[in-house]
Amino acid sequence: MVARIATLFVLLFWLPVITSSSSASSSLSVCIVGSGIGGSSVAHFLREYSSPSASISIRVFERHGVVGGRMARVNVGGDSFEAGGSILHPKNYYALNYTRLIGLKIRWPNATSASDGRDDDGDFGIWDGKGFVFKTWRVSSKLPFLDKIVSFANTALLFWRYGFSLIRMDNFVQRTVNNFLKYYENTDSRPVFETVEEMLKWAGLYDLTGQTLEEELISTGLSPLLIRELITVITRINYGQSVSISGLAGAVSMAGSGGGLWSVQGGNWQMAAGLLNHSNVALHLREEIQSISNLGNYYELNSSEGNSYKCEVAVVATPLDELDIRFDPPVSIPPRKLHHTHATFVRGLLNPAYFGLGSVEEIPDLVGTIEDPGLPFSSISVLKRHDEKEVTYKVFSREAMADTLLDQIFSVRKETIRIDWGAYPHYKAPEVFAPFILDGQHLYYVNAFENAASTMETSAVAAENVARLILSRQFGHVPLKLSGSESSVADEGVLHLDL
């Protein structure tokens, strides 16, 4: 009897150790569909948060021949420009950490290289179809003090037209940004979220998805003129939509029009490529996943190449709205329509007569438009000035630009490239969200968060949560691994001071 009790005591004593050892050394196979910033971030954070003893194999499937998803580039006349996600906010801390981790160079505002798709020193005008209702001044000078004078003068012009509503607008954006910064808090104090609604409510952002941006701004006290002109221009450029989009998407769009915006030299797609390389994944290019079946203990993924893959966890990191992936059993998500933005790249010269002007030099470097169904484009921006007679432009529009229309807008067209982007959701308040967990088991959907806002950084934030969700549900907790990269994310106070 004494021997039996002693044996039982030993078993009880060692049971937690045996269980812990077994859990820590468990293997996990993960398949990720999509190699954009969302899919590559899931792979990165799975590695980042896993204990060294955890054996996790990761496969990433990309239907195209290059990684990066909507962070694509386009070549126009031998120059390379951003065709998709172009800019990042100075407080996009995950993206900033990616560049440090991978060793990428950041292109800050006023950089001399023009080949990354932005001209930060240009002037700006709002076109209503008949004339420019607002224009800033431009002075070509290499004298810093003269640039500052022009900058102050343009600020005065803005205040003359829009008044103190500009300050209320800035306060609205800053409140939203400050709430969003909660997603960078230490993982000890930040929960793992199973739904988008929980994630937004925790950060104090959920209510913004229940009203349109216009309703939010009116309740904040912004003037109708500011909403109708400047803010409408911002939402049309960033999301191709009017101020009737949901409030959170609108606030994120407005934050993306501020100062200090940056990009990666050579292309933002390098973040995805670098994360995938750093995360030691098996990458399957030009292989589209056509079906995902839940077979009990694992998922079976069948591809366009006739291959079959088995994974314990499946992650969809690409919008399902226009993909034809068959799920067995079927999954149910709220219907959502992607908004298509047509990006037209033209190397040539604008026609000043179209804008009622006498010379090309009078046309602002960025032409934004108000909300008018008769206007054929959302914006026209200068990407690079080659000489006085040749410039590369990017035109955003809601419909494809016909040659006859382009010939009216441009006096010279040497090269024209058209891209039709299923770029982001068509936002409509109140927003309804798909679940992060599509089947209640181990099938995850990163892009469920896009109904809140669609940017490179929001994709990374959603991916980080999904990675923690996978680990917590698989192992019962998130087996955090201490590393330089993780500590830099957790200790964002230092990073805030640097910025």
How is this structure best described in words?
The protein is α/β, with parallel strands linked by helices and 499 residues long. The protein has a domain at 73-265 and 338-425: Polyamine Oxidase, Chain A, domain 2. It is 35% helix and 23% strand. It is built from 14 helices and 20 strands. It has helices spanning 2-24, 37-49, 93-102, 144-162, 165-180, 196-203, 213-220, 224-239, 247-255, 269-278, 403-409, 456-475, 484-490, 492-498; strands at residues 27-33, 55-62, 73-76, 79-82, 106-107, 124-127, 132-135, 263-264, 282-285, 289-294, 299-303, 308-311, 313-316, 326-328, 338-350, 366-369, 379-387, 390-397, 410-425, 443-445. The strands form five sheets. The chain has a seven-stranded mixed beta sheet. A hairpin with a 4-residue loop joins strand 11 (299-303) and strand 12. It starts with a helix and ends with a helix. The model is unreliable at 1-25, 111-120 and 481-499 (pLDDT under 50).
